[in-house]
TrEMBL record:
The keyword Cell cycle does not apply. This is Uncharacterized protein. InterPro entries: Bact_solute-bd_prot1 (IPR050490). It comes from the Bacteria. It comes from Paenibacillus plantarum. Residues 1-20 form the signal peptide. Keywords: Signal.
Amino acid sequence: MKKNYASALLSMTVILGVVAAGCSKAENTASPSASVAPSTGATQSAKPVEADKKYKVSFYNTVGYRLTTPMPAKEQDPIRQMIEKDNNMDLDMIMGGENWKDKLNLLISSNQIPDIVSFPDRASAIKYYDQGLLADLDDLLKEFPELPKAFDPSRLEPMKYKGHMIGLPASEAVGGVNGWWINNTWLKKLNLSVPTNPQELLNVMKAFTFNDPDGNGKNDTYGYVAMLPKDGSLGYSTSGAQGFQQIFWMYGVQPNFVDVKDGKVVVYNTDAKTKEALTFIKEMIDAKVVDPDWVTIDDGLKRDNKMYQGKVGIMIEDWRRLEPAETKKMQDAGGSVPDWKQIAPPKGPYGDQILDMKPFQQSLIGLSKEAMKDPGKAKRAMQFIQYLYTNKDAYPFLAYGIKDKSFTVTNGTPKLIDRSTYNEKEIEWRYNYAFVRKATDGVYFDFQKPDITNANQKINTSYLKDNNVNPRVFDDPADPMSQDRLKYANEMMLKFVTGKEPLTNWDTYVKTLQDKFKLNDAIANYTKQLQGDGVIK
C-alpha cells in the first residue's frame, strides 16, 4: 500500500448537500451595498481576553474551494472586512494551493509560522503535529465550550491523536453522493423488475445488452459501465466511485480497505469473499454486459459521458444527474432524456447491502505552537475559529458570498443569484471562505430539483457503512514493500477479472502477499496505529 493516507484507503470524497440551512437574521444585518459586508455584531468569544487589543492573525488555508484564486485587497473583500470588524483583528489569509506542503515548509523554515493552520487530510496534520508545528487544544477548548458542540461527535473523534485534540473539523464532507442508477425506460420496455440481488442484477444487465432496449435495431447498448482509474485499482482510489467498487460491496468487502472485525485488523485483499466478488465481476465481463470501454475510462468525466450518450442501463453516478444542467447534456448527447432513477444497492449473498462508507472527517483546522506563545493571540485565533463555525449571522456571507451580488435574502431566507447574470470570476475568491458551509446546505449547492435530489440522497445515505478506520491507517514510510504490495494486489485483481490469471491461483496470490510482500507486517502496523488512536485495544 502507498505511503500516504489516500492509498491505505483512498477516501472519497465529494461534495454535495441537500437540506437548506436557516439564516433568519441575515437580511436585517446586511448592508444594501453589494461591495460592503455588514458587521454581524455577534463575536462569540467565551472569555474575551484584551478585547480592545487588535491582533494580527495569520491563517494558512488549505481547505478553501478556490485555492489557486488570488485573494483581493481588503478594500475589495467585504467578507474579510466583516471578519476583521467582528473579531477585532487583522486577518492575513495565506492560500495553500496545489503545492501547499512546499509553501508551508518554506514559511516554517523562514520563521513565518502561521497562527492558524488547516490541513486537507488527517495524515498530514498528524505528521506536522509530530514535527512540532501543531499545538494541543485541550486546555484552550475549555474556555470555548460552545465550539465543540458545533460538530457531530463522529467528526470530532478523528481530531484526537495520542489522546489530545490537535484540531477541529474544517470542511464537512458528504456521504452517499454516488448511488445506483438504472434506466427505468429500458426496464419498463423489457418488462423487467428492479434487481435486488447479484443474479437478478446480471439478468437485467444481459437484457439491457442483448434485447435492444433502445429499440434502434442495433447491438449498441450495455448493461453496466465501470472505470479503471490511473492507479489500476478495482477498489478504492482517488478517482472516487468506479462501478466495480459497488460490486465488491455486495459481497461485504473492498480491495485496499482496512477494517476491524472482532477487535482485529483485517485487509480485504485476501478475504475469501473478495475472491467471490472477483468471480462475479469476471462473469459480468465474460458475459459482455460491461461496456468494454471500462479499461480506458480513467476519470469521472469519461464515465459521465456514457450516461449522457444513453447507451448504458445501469451505472454508479452522483445524485445530481437529474438536475437541469445534466439532463440537457443527456438531451444533447443522446437525443433524449431516459427515465433514470436511483435504486437501493442489490443485496449480496451474505446479506450485505452496502453502497459506500460514511465519510471520515479528514480536513482539520488548528493552532500552531508559535501562536500559543502569546495567550492573547491564541484566544483571539480560537475566537475567530468559533466565529467561523457558530456565528449564524456571518454564515450566509461566508458560505454564499456577497449580498445582492451572489445571494439575496427574502423574508429571512437566502437564495443564490443566477451565476449567469454576473461575472463570477470577479468574486471567485469568495469560495475560499466557504469551507464552513454545512454538508446539508441546499442553498449553497443550489439544486434546481431539490425534491428529486433530496430523495436520491435519502436512498444513498441509508446504505452507508460505519467507518472509524479509514483513512486513519496509513503505511509506514519506512516500509519498503508498501508501494509494491499495493501495485501487486491491483495488478493481480485486474488479471483475475480479465482472465489473464485464473482464479484457481487465488491461494498463491494470498501467499505471495503474505510472504513476499510482508502483508502481516503491514497489518501489525495498522494495528499499532489503531491502538494508539484508541480504536482497538
